[in-house]
Amino acid sequence: MTPPGPHGNGPQLGRAPRSATAPCLRTHRAGPSRPLAGSPGLPVSHDSAPQPLTARPGHALAGELKPPGDKSISHRAMIFGLLSIGETRVEGLLEGDDVLRTVEAARALGATITREGEGRWRVVGTGIGGLQDPADVLDFGNAGTGSRLMMGVVGGQPVTATFDGDASLRKRPMRRILDPLLQMGARVVSEAEGGRVPLTIKGPPEGIPIRYELPVASAQIKSAVLLAGLNAPGVTTVIEKAASRDHTERMLRLFGAEVRVEPHGEGGHGRSIALTGQPTLRGTEVIVPADPSSAAFPLVAALIVPGSEVTLRGVMMNPLRTGLITTLIEMGADIERLDEREEGGETVADLRVRASRLHGIDVPAERAPSMIDEYPVLAVAAAFAEGTTRMNGLHELRVKESDRLAAVAAGLAENGVDHVIEGDDLIVTGTGAAARGGGTVETYLDHRIAMAFLVMGMASENPVTVDDGAMIATSFPTFRPTMAALGAEIVEGANR
Ligand code: S3P
């Protein structure tokens, strides 16, 4: 097969992708985008003009909200639906751009997927071994999780697929996924320099079961190996030194696979996960709880806007996802966990959050996997806390949708917040009073950088502008109306 890309297989990639580091390229777009039949709308268009947004300080936030469905579980619901026999019904799916890309990819690989109502989807899968070669490049847009998990699927099955995405995804390391897949019998037919997308993977007729020690704590790598292991005869084992989110393990069991999870190593932080290959996965019902990573934005806003009281309904409390709540409580946050209950195999709770006087703390590196997506908004909380907050061991933040360590530091600098990066640690010092604000923050195609600094603008002395809010649609498409309903003021443009 010829290499993918402008001169390779599949449709022409057209113009250059919009850059995650060079905002001057933002009139360009990533690979092909096709309409999504039956979905609530087109994925966010990466060729539209940037959409600056400004958050202005205003009055206290009040009210209640249900954050959108969890992104990690939503991707997995589609992927497991694809790999199952029979029908999977999903309730509460996150209908953000990232997940819609996974919907499209699952369709291209052979699933029949229909939207039956808001957040309600039906998937009829092909079963393991029944996938078809996609006719087109799989364009994952901004979605690291969707693309990496689907690489695991393709890398374990007798299909060939080309993966691509926007300028942000094209910068992200994929070697970490390809290395174990090669050991499992997949071939990487072509790849962009440094193991990046666009890349083409050809899966084997049957995978080779392996024992794989994760080089970094990453649920994406773990999940890719386990998904590839579904078509391997025998036991595929993944060892992680620090436990990362366990949604894949839980859903493997829910769909009928046999998975053994045991503690691993000293200190009780690690796990060994053993999957018995070639199960029959059967379609089932998936209820998607509210995403704690999206809840983090209104939660921190309620803590730092004086006089606020907000209740967040049905937020997933999986202990591998609640590092931010633990941290904020240590900082003095008034967060009550109410009405803890089971929903779709996860514990959920309502969180009552009241504006609080926060103080700086040391956040241990071991906690990072349980709050890996929450550091941008924690840095904002730290800017309003009294004293120094040291966030340790943030190396993985450099390879997220943007280099989040650099993007957060630049945003703090723009808004007059005292901070320093020491190695992989971010140290933020607040005075206990409102941050100065008044800056314009570059978001580098990163939804969480955009939302974090809009939260800052709700509580700072002066408004805060983000250069582009379009990517917010990848994970929290209703962010603006949700925040407006609580009383926040977010306006279009660099309006002061
Ligand atoms: C995710 C895992 C995390 C996280 C991402 C979602 C998942 O990435 O940052 O937003 O759903 O598995 P890593 O596994 O690379 O840490």
Automatic annotation (TrEMBL):
Q: Quick one: where's region Disordered? A: 1-70
Catalytic activity field: 3-phosphoshikimate + phosphoenolpyruvate = 5-O-(1-carboxyvinyl)-3-phosphoshikimate + phosphate
Coiled coil segments of this chain: none
Tell me where in or outside the cell this protein is found. Cytoplasm
- Taxonomically, which superkingdom? Bacteria
UniProt GO BP? amino acid biosynthetic process; aromatic amino acid family biosynthetic process; chorismate biosynthetic process
User: One Pfam match, by short name?
Assistant: EPSP_synthase
Keyword set for this entry?
A: Amino-acid biosynthesis, Aromatic amino acid biosynthesis, Cytoplasm, Transferase
Q: Which residues bind 3-phosphoshikimate?
A: 71-72, 76, 218, 220, 373, 400
Gene3D superfamilies (UniProt xref): Enolpyruvate transferase domain
Instruction: Identify the PROSITE patterns for this entry.
Output: EPSP_SYNTHASE_1, EPSP_SYNTHASE_2
Sites binding phosphoenolpyruvate sit at 71, 144, 172, 220, 404, 448
Q: Name one GO cellular component term.
A: cytoplasm
HAMAP family, sorted: EPSP_synth
Q: What does this protein do?
A: Catalyzes the transfer of the enolpyruvyl moiety of phosphoenolpyruvate (PEP) to the 5-hydroxyl of shikimate-3-phosphate (S3P) to produce enolpyruvyl shikimate-3-phosphate and inorganic phosphate.
The record's subunit annotation is:
Monomer.
- Family per record: Belongs to the EPSP synthase family.
What is the protein name for this chain?
A: 3-phosphoshikimate 1-carboxyvinyltransferase
Q: Which organism is it from?
A: Methylorubrum salsuginis
Q: Which gene encodes it?
A: aroA
